[in-house]
Amino acid sequence: MSPRPSIVIVGAGPRGTGFLERLAANLPELYGDEPLDVHLVDPHPPGPGRIWRTEQSPLLWMNSQAEDVTMFTDETVDLEGPVRPGPTLAEWAGIEGRTFPTRPQQGAYLRWVYERARDALPASVTVHEHRTTALRVSGPREGRQRVRLEGVSAPLLADLVVLTVGHVGAEPDPEQRRLAGFADRHGLVHLPPDFTADADLSALPAGEPVLVRGFGLAFVDLMVLLTEGRGGRYEGEGDELVYVPSGKEPVLHVGSRRGVPYHSKIGYVLDGERPPLPRFFGPDQTDALLRRAGPLDFRRDVWPLIDKELGWAHYHRLFSTHPERTSLDWSDFEKAYEEAPPRGAELAAVVAAAVPDPADRLDLDALDHPLDGIRYDSADALQHGLRGYVTDDLTRRHDPAHSPDAAVFAGLLSVYGQLLRLGRRVDPDGWWHGFFSYLASGPPGPRLRQLLALSRAGVVRFLGPQVTVETDEERGLFRAASAALPGEWTEARALVEARIPEPTPEHTASPLLRALYEEGARVTPGGLLVVDPGDGRLLDHDGHPHPRRFALGPHTTARTGAGFTRPRTGGAGFRQNDATARAALALLRDRECRRPAPLSA
Q1: Which pLDDT value is given to residue 273?
Q2: Do 287 and 428 belong to one domain?
Q3: Three-class SS of residue 534?
Q4: Contact present, 538 and 137 (Cβ < 8 Å)
Q5: In this predicted model, which residue has the larger pLDDT, 431 or 61?
Q6: Cross-referenced Pfam families, in alphabetical order (predicted)?
Q7: Domain stops at, among 435, 450, 480
Q8: Confidence class of residue 501 from pLDDT cuts 50, 70 and 90?
Q9: 540: burial class by Cβ within 10 Å (0-12, 13-18, 19+)?
Q10: What CATH number corresponds to the domain at position 25?
Q11: Shared domain check, 415 and 289
Q12: Is residue 567 part of a domain?
């Protein structure tokens, strides 16, 4: 008697939950009422997983507004399976749509979504939850797979394995090991890259300086947990917000490559005419890139198309909504813009002739290097200058007069959809993903107002851009300096790397991924599993898709630009989940897939 067909899903957080939802939606059409075992493997609760677990501090917020978070498909998603609509987080929780929910609130929503997807499966499907860690996947390409679990002697046998492991940790690289060794020798504190909510911050003493390298979302969490999380509070609102210390806070000296926080979330709704996208980087251009032989160079082959596409979104909005700030008819500008080669002097001249004020022009290079060439004559002048930068960013991001910024955001989402089709052939070092996050996935405006209040209170001190961190063996201290204040060093007995760890093939903390790397799965230099962009199958070194192994999520080359999908935006993640679920069900339906391999295989 043949064993029951089975599928193992490794990772039961948002991506695993989303895949399960699509599995349930497509099962009646593709699989019917045949028996099936679904095994979910995750040491954390199904639905929220680790990142969105409900027991973490309610001081930590989502980075999206409640109305912009959905786990359900709608008619804008290009998918073969059925649409199964459902509530947004705001609708489910009964909260105001423009609220930034807490992470426990999001975790509760994800748990409900998981239970709804599980309950939608027919009685012929049995779901098994394994609250442990998957260690290794083995088995022949044409036979059943074996998934080894921590603390369990017998492996799970699976016809198919889907990896939805989400964000994974990393072992320290040589630089981090060197810094840790220095800290151990001198009795200092060194916190390596980690998910901030998981880090032990108790070692950071009150009142003492702490060097912080990293100014993205990990820093925002650090800032919250070391201030409000230690009993501080805010009084007033808006520009008059004041931080009242508890006396338990350290002094955070923060810097990074850019030296500024991620751009604020946009604080208004993009109304009126929207830019028709895609235009200069759409399916035709992507098809042409895919037809090229050999590797693509991101800066040479792809970035010019992105630059022109984002410029198109920006200027379309400027001309349609703020024509008084332009000096050409739209039809004339459109023709000239279309004919000019990307990122050249000709295109720059077209823009300059049509948009008189440089502040109304889109300069992506300047956005990526906001403090290049700026020097300050004192640390106090640097604090004043950076507070001015953050204040200007907040003002701009909440002023509809600058609505081309919101159009660029729409362009960024469109661009990401095309990059997903290119898969491993672009962005091998992750630069684009980082730039996207900096420009489009920054903190809520209230968080930056809190940052300004903390700066005024002296709890946060800005270091500036191009930060250098050194170790002083003689004095037993960490030292940091930046290009904005040459020759001036800040010293501290603690160093925090405020960034998510990079799980490269050499340093991934996941035994499962390490085993896949060793076995021959194709990976990018940054440690992303290379998958078929069509259905998420793992590719081997020769580019052949594995018939029984799939992967979805941020640890793959098919990662999307945002953690969660906005309603009615096409939802690239939904499309991926649907394609993989349908491919999996079609394989399970195939009798050849159910033929057991010899146990010795």
Answers
A1: 79
A2: yes
A3: coil
A4: no
A5: 61
A6: NAD_binding_9
A7: 435
A8: confident
A9: middle
A10: 3.50.50.60
A11: yes
A12: yes
Cβ pair 425, 203 in contact under 8 A: no
Q: Based on the domain organization, do 419 and 552 belong to the same domain? A: no
Domain boundary among 386, 412, 435: 435
Gap between the Cα atoms of 215 and 507, Å rounded: 23
pLDDT digits (tens, 9 = 90+) for 28-51: 999 999 999 999 999 999 999 999
Enclosing domain of residue 331: 283-368+398-435
Beta strands in 405-465 (DSSP E): 460-464
Backbone angles phi, psi at 589, to 5 degrees: -70, -25
Q: What is the pLDDT confidence band of residue 557, given thresholds at 50, 70 and 90?
A: confident
With beta carbons less than 8 A apart as the criterion, state whether 347 and 308 touch: yes
Distance (Å, whole) CA 367 – CA 352: 18
Q: Beta strand 156-158 with 145-149: parallel, antiparallel or unpaired?
A: antiparallel
Number of domain units in the chain: 2
Tokens of 303: 């970035």
Q: How far apart are CA 134 and CA 11, in angstroms?
A: 9
Cis peptide before 261 (omega within 30 of 0): no
Whether residues 14 and 140 share a domain: the answer is yes
Tell me, letter by letter, the H, E, C secondary structure of 99-150: CCCEHHHHHHHHHHHHHHHHHCCCCCEEEEEECCCEEEEECCCCCCEEEEEC
Is the Cβ–Cβ distance between 145 and 8 less than 8 Å?
yes
Residue 56 within a domain: yes
Six-digit token string for 247: 């006396």
598 pLDDT above the threshold of 50: no
46 belongs to a structural domain = yes
**CA pseudo-torsion sign 494, 498, 503, 509:** positive
User: Phi/psi at 205 (nearest 5 deg)?
Assistant: -80, 155
Grouping H, G, I as helix, E, B as strand and the rest as coil, residue 523 is strand
In order of 218, 279, 336, the CA distances from 282 in angstroms are: 33, 6, 19
What does the pLDDT look like over 162-180, one tens digit per residue?
Answer: 999 988 888 888 999 999 9
